[in-house]
Amino acid sequence: MPDRKKLQKLISNLLIAFVLITIGFSLGKHSVLNRMTADAATVSASNSSLPDIKKAVKIFYMHSTFRCVTCSAAETLALDLVDKEFAEARKTQTLLWENVNFQENAALAKKFDVIATCMVIATVENDQIIDFVRLDDILTLSDKPEEFNAYVRNAVSKELGKMAGS
After folding, report:
1. Mapping DSSP to helix (H, G, I), strand (E, B) and coil, where does residue 94 land?
2. Taking all residues of the chain, what is their mean pLDDT, rounded to a whole number?
3. Is the pTM of this model over 0.70?
4. What range defines the domain where residue 65 resides?
5. Which CATH number characterizes residue 151's domain?
6. What angle is formed at CA 105 by the lines to CA 101 and CA 106, rounded to 5 degrees?
């Protein structure tokens, strides 16, 4: 019987720890969301970081403050693909890359309607975001490199093609 009581006590302690951790994460999430809402009117939309180029496609890798292994892996996959397959566009700065913490840049997060890690591929002209497409499936595809690469490649190619056609 003493082993059963020890087991019950262990399970009780684990459940209490789980509840406390869950409450902590919830409070942290709500405080970040409140800060994002309060700061939305005053935070820059990150256009100041655009180079002096008339028209380009810019990839915004939108991430949270806490970056898990999957988030980091997706970013590495995407950046490797962009650097290898779109090297000329990167060299001529018609394709740009920027990491953005969407929890710190509330205005840009709101503009792109970002609530979780994703990539946004935007057409920029004269330092203004003209159009964009949000890639929400990068995390779910990050463990399938071929599908991930096709997903990102197609989206980037499409935006670069739109820019070339105009």
Report:
1. coil
2. 82
3. no
4. 47-165
5. 3.40.30.10
6. 120
Alpha-carbon separation of residue 63 from 43, 60, 115, 165 (angstroms): 17, 9, 9, 31
What is the per-residue DSSP string for 118-152? EEEEEEEETTEEEEEEEETTHHHHTT-HHHHHHHH
Residues 59 and 95: beta-carbon distance below 8 Å: yes
Band of pLDDT at residue 40, cut at 50, 70 and 90: very low
Identify how many contiguous H helices and E strands the chain contains and give both numbers. Answer: 6, 4
Measured in residues, the chain has a length of 166
Nearest CA to 62 out of 125, 105, 14 is that of 105
Pairing between strand 118-125 and 95-101?
Answer: unpaired
Closest CA to 132 of 103, 106, 165, 110: 110
Of 48, 30, 37, the C-alpha closest to 109 is 37
Residue 47: pLDDT band (50, 70, 90) is: very low
Asked if residue 115 and residue 73 are part of one domain, the reply reads yes
Examine the domain organization and report whether 18 and 71 are in the same domain: no
Q: 55-63 and 95-101: which strand pairing?
A: parallel
22 vs 104: which has the higher pLDDT: 104
